[in-house]
Every structure is written in structure tokens, then in C-alpha cells.
Amino acid sequence: MEEIVEGCLGFLYNLLVVICVGQLLLRVAQGRSVRWLVLLVVSGVMLSCLVHSSVLKVGLVSVLCSVIYYVGREEVMLPTLDKAVLITGCDSGFGHDLARFLDSAGMRVFAGVLDELSPGALKLKKAASPNLTVLQLDITNSSQITQAHQYIKSQIGKAGLWALVNNAGVLGYVCDGEILPIKMYKKCLDVNFIGSVEITQVFLPLIRQSKGRIISISSMGGEVPLPGFAGYGASKAAMIMYNGTIRQELSRWGVRVIIIQPGAFKTNIFGSREQWNCAQEDILSGLSQEVMTSYGEEYICSMQQRLVNMSSASSSDTGLFLEDLKHAILSPRPKHFYYPGAAAWVLPLLYRHCPTSLSDTILSRIFMTGDAQPAEIRVLEL
């Protein structure tokens, strides 16, 4: 009798393992992430091998199956009908793609652009449905923010604004923090932080009206100190702290505050060769003789190659980003943080849990690539 029971339990155990693997394969076929579930299943099966009791084995694998099923269920999204969203920075990149994506999903989209006559804005107008409106909206211009607010308020009525996506942002230039001009620090803070705060404050009454959500596109550079990104990283860190604070404060009204920290995607935030040359000239013309001697013109000019390398290593497929944004906007239970893209979660995890000396070494090797060295360092190495 005991042998029959053991045989049945053994068969049930094997069947449950097959079901676990089958559910994982089904998620892969659907194009959904299984990274954490694979780790969970492998750990669970290994643990069950160490357990001698067949009953405990079956119980453990049953729990695994239940977890995979629960996590893997297709979530029912909120209806898009009568939901309006304002997205900043829609001239190109993430904002442009997101505006078209949400328009095709049936939302009422207000797409803010820096220049409504830019090629990206004109393309958006041409390709969009009547549900998408392109608005002139420089988030560092208070009068344009006020005008946009008045127009949107007149269009949405009592329904309120369901979501504000703070997407507009600038990179400035990638170079050592000591030689980055102060005006570039100020520009990063004005656009990436102050502008986002102002537009959030202006539109919050409409968002509170709908118990909607604020979604800010940040960067892993706002959490992890990346060499070359002093100005950009500082502005994004300010954004993360601000959003974390208001997330707690606005929860009393049922307003969700969400942060997206994408990995490396190829967008126009890297700028053009012409913009790089202008930034390089600003740096060269603004340095004191002492600092210029320490760094040298050759090293400063090598910064452009960093931008080329980063752009070429970035992904042009924004599908993961758009899916996470859709979930953040329409899920009944959105996450507080999203990390779309390759390595978006790896570097923050490394920085949080590794000794500082180790994470500094790894990050320096990743982001301070190439043979170029400041002139003074090069002399010392000879």
C-alpha cells in the first residue's frame, strides 16, 4: 500500500514539474518576461530534491505551480474610453512613440512638443487619429504650460486628466563633472526637474479629479552614479526624490505616482554631431588654463566617441518600454517602479548591494572606456 501511495505521489510530483515548465514555455511564447519565475522554479525544484518526504515535495511544487499561475495570469486592463493623457516631449523618441501607441489604443492623447512645426510634430499630426492633439508645450515656459492647461481643461470636462507622463528631458553632454559648463547643469535641472515639477503642480488638480496617475520617465543614471553623467544624473536623482515624496502625499487622494527607469534605448536624447560640436566648443572656451592643462584638448575631444559608443550599443526597439508604460497607465495595480530594457535593473541592483569600491570599479570600466586619459594622468603613467 505504501509503495502505491509513494508511486502516486512520485507521478503527481513529476506531473506538477511538467506543468510548471509548460506554464513558463507558454509565457515565453506570448513574449512575456519569465526571468524571475525561472529562478523561482529552478530554486524550488532543487530544494524539493533535498526533501525526502514525497508529500513535502508535492506540496512545494504545488505552491510553485500556483505562484506561476497567479503571476502569469493575463491582467485585465482598465478601459481606455474617456481617459485622457498628457505626454510631454513628443517631438521624437519615447514621447513620440508613446503618443502614437496610446492613440492607437483608443485614449484621448494630448501630445506636448517643444516645437509644433518640427518634423516630428508634423509627422505626429499627420499619422494621428482625431483623438490626438499636438500642443506647443515647452515645459520651461510657464505661459505655455498655462495655455496647455486651459485648453486641456476645456476639452476633458469633469472626467479630469487620467495620466500625466513627464517624458521631456535633455542629456546635455557626456563629460567629466569638473569640466561640464554650469549652464549645462542648469539646463538639465530646468528641463528634467524644475519643468517637470511645475507642470505636475499645474495639472495635479485635474489628475486628483480623476484619481489618476503621474508617470515620470527617469533614468538609472538618477539612481546609479555613472561617470560622465554628473549633470543629467543629478537632475534625474532630484526627479526620483520628488516623485517618491509626492507618491506618499498624494496616496491620500488615490493618485498613483510611478517612476520608469529605462535601460539604454536609442533616442534623440543623445543629440546630433552639430550639438556635440557646440557643447565641445563651450567646454574648451570656458575652462581656465589650469584645468585645460590637467585635462588636455585631446581628452576633451574624445568625449564625442563616448556618445557614439553609447548610441550604437543602445536598443532601437522600444517595445518593452511601451508595454511597461501601457501597464503603468492602464493597470488597476501599477507598480511603483518599472525597469524596461536590457540591464535597466542590473546596474541599480549592483550599486545597491555591492561594496562601493567594487561598484565604482565596475561602473568605471563600463563607462570610462577607450584609451583616452586626461593629459595630466597620461604624463604620470609614463
Which key phrases capture this entry?
flat; 2 domains; 382 residues; 59% helix; 7-stranded parallel beta sheet; alpha/beta; 8% strand; Rossmann fold
Please tell me about this protein's structure:
This protein is an alpha/beta fold. It has two domains: 2-72; 84-271 and 315-352, Rossmann fold. It contains 16 helices and seven strands. Helix 4 packs across helix 13 (319-330) and helix 6 (142-156) runs parallel beside helix 7. The protein is flat. The mean pLDDT is 86.
The total count of helices amounts to 16
Q: What structural class should be given to the helix and strand makeup?
A: alpha/beta
Radius of gyration: 25 Å
By CATH reckoning, the class of the largest domain would read: Alpha Beta
Number of strands: 7
Distance between the termini: 81 Å
Helix content: 55-70%
Apparent shape: flat
Tell me which CATH architecture of the largest domain applies here. 3-Layer(aba) Sandwich
Q: Remind me, CATH topology of the largest domain? A: Rossmann fold
Q: What about the largest sheet?
A: 7 strands, parallel
Order of helices and strands: HHHEHEHEHEHEHEHHHHHEHHH
Uncertain spans, ≥5 residues at pLDDT below 50?
none
**Range of strand content:** 5-15%
- Overall pLDDT level: 86
